[in-house]
Amino acid sequence: MKKVLFATTALIATASMAAAEVRISGYGRFGLGYTSGSDARTAGGVQVTGGYPNNGNEQAINGASKSQIISRMRLQFDMSTETDGGVALGGRIRTESDTGQSSASQTVLWSAPRFYATVGGFTLGVGNIIGAFEGVPGAYLETRSAGNGLDGMQFVSHVGNVNNEYFNWDYFDSDGVGFNGVEALYSAGAFSAHVSYSVDDGSAAVTSLPNPAPVGSGAVTALNRKRSAVNLAYTFGDWTAAVGFQDSNYRFEDKAFVSIAGQLGQFGVRLAYADNDGIDKFGLYGNMDIGAASNIVLWVTSEDAVSATDVANGRNDNRDAIATSNQQEGTSYGINYSYDLGGGASFEAGAQRSSYGNTQVQAGAVFSF
Length: 369
What we know:
single chain; 369 residues; mainly beta; Porin; 16-stranded antiparallel beta barrel; two-stranded antiparallel sheet
């Protein structure tokens, strides 16, 4: 994305610091969306829900419209300086606001900061970290939203998202406290590595997780969830292979991921697989440029069923054969079209059919600065 430098070098009145800069960048997006809500079901008089953040049942529960105005504005502030010894020190903070169906979703929110120190190919990050599982190459779509359409459409296309247990890993939280942690990133030539560790001592992010119940009987509480993650990637020619792992003391958060992505002539292709603590999910992805300004991304994923043992231990139920489940087992697929308008702007349109029966369509404009 094109980034405009709003504030240039400022003098620092110390002997140890050379120069500092503040950069402001961001993006805006706006358009229209449609959600079918065709999967609204009841079992025993109780509304069945599934998907992230909802699967269309919002229409049945509170009468929300199937059509929506979609918009977001994000500003990102990057601050950096360099010591006389050549160490780059910096930080990042964001603010953003979405327009949604409720006034609560239109609140302007700030992120917690991420701090870093970089020398050569090594970076140490602290605070609202990126997270090694979040940063593994080959996990997201090759689109402006990193998912389908304007806002990602719940990122059903990500093989790490299964069974209503979406984004249960560390990531830079753009509108909250994030996952307080430490991470190390290293790159040398074709090789890259990323290791992260976080501890949450009772923030809202923990209590909102799909399965906050800890392993064991009282050995771990909701006040000390810990996550460790690592990813490794290697590029050879036009291809990149990557693996990622996460270990957590919370139930159903252990993950393993592998992907390979590259070029076959004018076509970009990617395969991805994740073992989500016993639930396999596979993804096949392709993209192609059409002329000088257009691009199409196609994708399909397949999510396996949860085990009956895990369900008995309190895990969400995604099995199609169970009436009370979220029924996310099965195949999802979608298409995204992008047309470059120039000046950092593009027209984006996407459609998808999720395994739980919901159809979504979105179209609008995205511009970066």
